[in-house]
Give the backbone structure.
Amino acid sequence: MAKIIISGFMGSGKTTVGKILSEKLNIPFYDLDYEIEKEEGRTINEIFKESGEAYFREIEKRLLIKFLRMLDDFVLSVGGGAVINNESLENILKYSIPILLYGNPKVFYERIKNENGRPLLNSYDGFLALYRKREKFYKRIPIKVNSEKSAYEVAKEILDILKEEVINKPQKILIKIGSSFSLKNMRFDFSIIDSKIHKIYSERFNIEDYYVVFYGERAKNLSTVAKIYNALSEAKIDRKSEILGLGGGVITDITGFVGSTYLRGINFSFAPTTLLSQVDSAIGGKNGVNLSYGKNLVGTISLPKGAYIDPLFIISLPKREILSGLGEVFKYAILSENGMFETLENALEIDFMTIQKLVYPSIVEKIKWIEDDLYDKENKRVFLNLGHTAGHMFEKVLGFGSVSHGEAVATGIIVSSYISCKNGLLKETDFQKILNLYKKIGFTAEKFEKILGIDDDTLINTLLMDKKRVKEGINIVVPVSYNRVTLLNNFPVRSLPQYIKETLKEVV
């Protein structure tokens, strides 16, 4: 488990819900206001009247941070204004499972309007004005639960969100919000860790020997692998050791490749920290590094011992990284009738609450295509390449890192959809449906405009490096509806630049 912080405006039911969660999870419950009163020896009202709000907020911040530094887990309800201090909010986001109880301010006001012990409660107009002032801070809290329902219904919804999902085939996968806090109780002999994750989260893990990888995709090469081999030798890693890859897709690819080749294979596990790695790179056993000629041209297929997926890592990602992961989620939504397309299409906002609901079904969808073709011999796994033919070409021609993998794949899906539509396989209405969702998620084709100025021969030569090439043709996956795909075998490579440029001209 982990430390759970329940926040929300006055009347949202934080204390009542917190006590129910405490009982169900069998961990202690604390109320921050009560702890302040206990330390001060006077009520919250008295503190406000005698010492002022600024004094109260300083005590609130100090006690909150003290709780977050405790070793034991708990449920803590905090006052409605506790998150308006940036330092307090950053600590909550970094060291706890942060939950916001939200709802209609009118409902909350009706619950508490007759209470006398609230110093900031006067009239409904004042109540509403204070709520609006704090709203921007509340929006930063990722886990949001509507608390207009009964406290037991709210607690049940939170417990459902915190529920652990376990998949055992073809590899062990554990999906749980806050699971990364438990990794400190697990022993790994060595870690390969992304530099950004090391800077933000290093204290969350029990790591002694490690290698920090800088520069993201640019580091995914044989030179980096050689340096890690040497570091493993210096750390005296043997065949019985286990290494952990802690980071995004670059880290899982490198860790899987190193783990499956060092000493002819040692145990390795992943703690994927990006959405892309959680729904794709950490699943299925494909590991590899880039050559100057293209992506993932050297690699292995070897499954990790475990993949420990904590969706909370997503909240620290920049928007571009989230979009990158959503490129693969977008792909899974189109591959089959799994309901993911509708979930995205009907979402009011593509926020954390929407995204975390799609992590498990995304993994299930990927496993469906790989479990009977783990080593990519039966041509079943090929359907996961939807969007990747044009996508990998975009990455190579524009320069690795200039566009994210997910952005390239999502735009590649639009190219595949255009090809399918122009060849009579996909209805125009379904093409528009796919394009509309592409835009709703937040993708844009503007950064791919440079492709329009690149000569066809350069694009063709890059496409001919694709692993799915067959002589002068290529096997390309295309949608035949907004949630079903087919494979076009031996599609002529030399016709692809025209289709790609026509697509970009239409959607830019």
User: Anything to note?
Assistant: The two ends are 46 Å apart (CA to CA). The chain has three domains: 4-161, 165-317, 338-507. The longest strand covers residues 473-481. The longest helix spans residues 352-370.
